[in-house]
Amino acid sequence: MPLVAVSVPAGAAFDDLSALGAAVAQALSARRAAVVAAGDLSAALTARSPRAAATGAIFWDEQAVAAVDAARLDGLRRLGPDVARRVTALGWAPLSALHGIVRYAKIGMVVRHYSAPRGVGYLVACGG
Questions:
Q1: So where are the chain's domains?
Q2: H helices of 3-56, where?
Q3: Most buried by CB count within 10 Å: which residue of 44, 82, 118, 125?
Q4: Are 81 and 93 in contact (CB under 8 A)?
């Protein structure tokens, strides 16, 4: 299976990122494919985080995890990009593109793991 790497701009609008994801899904629709969306959630969760603790960072991660787990990635729209930048959540843009992929391909998502070692939120989810 060929690897298609797509990088998305952190400051792009949710609808633009979602449309990009849908275009990727459409281009791959005739093939069996796997999608990996990567990016940290907040890097400002605690005083020991790489960034200074940001007000609302824990809530941001909770909301992002809940949106993915409920297969309602459209809920990410209200979480960024400005708030994502404030809480140093680099994964907002890739997750927003993932919204377009799962919507186009009609894939449900389930959270498999969330943790925040060293004050940075990490989320692992899968869909099918």
A1: 14-127
A2: 14-28
A3: 44
A4: yes
Cα 93 from Cα 98, distance rounded (Å): 9
- Alpha carbon distance 120, 49 (integer Å): 6
pLDDT tens per residue across span 15-26: 999 999 999 888
The CATH architecture of the domain made up of 14-127 is 3-Layer(aba) Sandwich (3.40)
Question: Is residue 25 within 8 Å of 100, Cβ to Cβ?
Answer: yes
Structure tokens at 99: 């919204």
Q: Among 59, 58, 21, which residue's Cα sits nearest to residue 37?
A: 21
First and final C-alpha spacing in the chain: 18
Nearest to 41, CA basis, from 67, 61, 63, 62: 61
Q: Which range, of 14-23, 31-40, 75-84, 103-112, averages the lowest pLDDT?
A: 31-40
Q: Given this model, what pLDDT does residue 29 score?
A: 75
Q: Which residues contact 65 (CB under 8 A, 6 or more apart)?
A: 41, 111, 114, 121, 123
